[in-house]
Amino acid sequence: MRVARVAPVVMWLGAWSIACAQIGCAQGRSMNDAGSGGLDARGEDATTLFPDAFIPDAPLGDAPGLDAPPIDAPSFDAFVPGTDAFSRDAFVPGIDAFSRDAGRDAWAPDAYRCPCGPGACTTSCGTSGSRVCTDPCAPICAPPSESCNATDDDCDGSCDEDLGGCRVGVARAYHDSLGGHFYTTSAAEAVGGGYRIEIDPFFFVYPSPQPGLVPFHRCYLNRAHRLYTTDAGCEGSGASYEGILGYVATSPVCGARPLYRMSARDDHFYTTDAGERDAAVAGGYLDEGAPVYVW
User: Confidence class of residue 111 from pLDDT cuts 50, 70 and 90?
Assistant: First the structure.
């Protein structure tokens, strides 16, 4: 009976001795030691014999049977911002690789694959806008709100729309007895001194200087006749300078239209209607072109 009991024990000890010799028990090593003569934690034998053991040198996610990562190893759902270099212990914001060995692009959020931050940018219509990073990989340049500056700030194809007081209307009046045309931004002036209003407003000008615009001067010739010109010297006509009617363009910017100019003796006639211009020329006025543009 004693022999029968000892035999299984001897057999068990023999098996244990063989296993222990394979994994380095005689040298007092643990299963995770990586010195020479012991098991490499990344080796095939270690993962086969101890599938539940943590393998510290393996890339995250590559170790089979990973039940408990070390304390300083991040999880796959979290990252550690503020680091400068990626390792198995920290996630590096700003680079594509979440794992040092695999998973490029797969783990890096868009915010880090496509760095984007607020700042100034140039819009599609050339104005200064603000960068919007709703989609970091496809930021947009948001245009500014429209302001009174003879510019299409918000890139909608119109300038200074719906801005009350940005432009002022010019009334066209006529003196029946003296036969002179009069253009003014003052409704009271348009009906004084024998004038009557023909159209109000006839066109619009800017009341103050704006980028790209020029002053439109008003010069008194005689009786009911005036000259309107971009020349502050009244074109050497000897007329009395009366000031600036408003600010106008010299090209069709912001939807401006040409202001045709004609003259017959001392009467200077201005219109934005090409048909009216043609009729006036047919009636004896001299066509002097369209030196300015108005709204």
Answer: low
